[in-house]
């Protein structure tokens, strides 16, 4: 009888043991970590923006002359312009594959006989770098000016204001 | 004699059944000192999940030259730069994750100490010192949620530039 009771106690102990469940664990979708490493931009220019000679022929309203980024000149009526001018070639260096915005700001050309003209650079709005550092990427910049009936003749000079920045 | 044999056989059957049990077998506990009628299920992992609300994004880093540099982004959003790293973008963001599970449960959150970010155009950079803003004993709140942020330190070797990306696996366990 005693033996029977002991066996029962062992059986009860075995059945009564709480099952050991594995600790629950979940792993979420891996969040990504990202970084964009870029090198400082450098901008250099060669050449100059030259509209050539513009003859005012009884100008009655504001007329625009444009040196296109390929050097050709678009001449408005009442003006006589050269066929071609010269444009500025810029070179920008930075990080391969990055898009660089080209910021074109107006500037003032000062006349030799007083007077001034507003110069607006003309060209692409951005370029994509195809290498890091040298050789960089070239891009041309032309410009446009408005000739008014009151524009004073003379030689106008100034600087072209172009900046670059990563997109 | 017959009655005694039947009793022994009965217990033998019970013992065989107990020894033959494999794996967690949900069952009512009938012979416990304090019997419980509550069914123990394996649904704990079914109601816990992690949502990644924001990735760890160092955004744009400007490096001045080819010497090594590093930038550290803390879970509170503060950052420090050193070496060739000249600036970190103001749009850099720490990572944010949300754990959903049983209200009031204590959890353990595991992340690797370091990972490798791979460049789209080749190359690698190291991200280490991964750290969270969790308390020492994180616990799901009364709504079963726990949000935490994480950051780390990015190490940039010479000539590394471009876009880099890597994955940070996060594991959460109930305690």
What is the compact description of this entry?
Chain A is mainly β. Helices cover 9% and strands 47% of the residues of chain A.
Please write out the topology.
The complex is a heterodimer of chains A (167) and B (175).
Chain A: H1 2-16, E1 25-28, E2 32-38, E3 42-46, E4 54-56, E5 63-67, E6 73-75, E7 79-81, E8 88-93, E9 99-105, E10 107-111, E11 116-123, E12 126-128, E13 137-147, E14 156-157, E15 161-166
Antiparallel strand pairs in A: 3-8, 4-7, 5-6, 5-13, 8-13, 9-12, 9-15, 10-11, 10-14, 11-13
Chain B: H1 2-19, E1 49-54, E2 56-63, E3 69-73, E4 79-83, E5 85-88, E6 95-100, E7 107-110, E8 114-119, E9 124-132, E10 145-156, E11 162-167, E12 170-174
Antiparallel strand pairs in B: 1-6, 2-5, 3-4, 3-10, 6-10, 7-12, 8-9, 8-11, 9-10
Describe it.
The complex is a heterodimer of chains A (167) and B (175). Chain A is 9% helix and 47% strand. Chain A has 167 residues and is mainly beta. Chain A has one domain (42-166). With 175 residues, chain B is mainly beta. Chain B has a single domain (47-174), classed as Immunoglobulin-like (Sandwich). In chain B, the strands form 3 sheets. In chain B, strands 1, 3, 4, 6, 8, 9, 10 and 11 form an 8-stranded antiparallel beta sheet that branches. Chain B has a two-stranded antiparallel sheet with strand order 2-5. In chain B, strand 3 (69-73) and strand 4 (79-83) form a beta hairpin. The longest helix of chain B has 18 residues, at 2-19. Chain B is elongated. At the A-B interface, helix 1, strand 1 and strand 2 of A face helix 1, strand 1, strand 2, strand 10 and strand 11 of B.
